[in-house]
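Progress report, Aim 2. The chain analyzed during this reporting quarter is listed below.
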Amino acid sequence: MVTVAKRDLKAGERLDGIGGFCTYGLIDNATSARSAAALPIGLSEGRTLRRDVSKDAVLAFDDVDGVPRGIVETLWREQNFLWPLATHESRGSSLQHAPAGGVR
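Predicted structure tokens for the chain:
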């Protein structure tokens, strides 16, 4: 789930996380979220904005000061490492090796 501004936010504001007054979470597909470096809602609490953000804009890691090295952030990084997103090329190569006439 990506972090989205509930209202116009100002640089220097501290985000209040899940269920707060600053942001809400929206489901996005992993490829889109990662390519935009979208800030997961679970990593938003306590982050300070570096710039103004308009209402309904998706927040990116670049929009906030550093994400702390807590258990949630550690698990998020581990997940990204263990299950990297397939690129267009890797999806094509796996299809080339599929058995003829069936699904593997």
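The chain has a mean pLDDT of 83. DSSP finds three helices and two strands in the chain. These observations will guide the mutagenesis work planned for the next reporting period.
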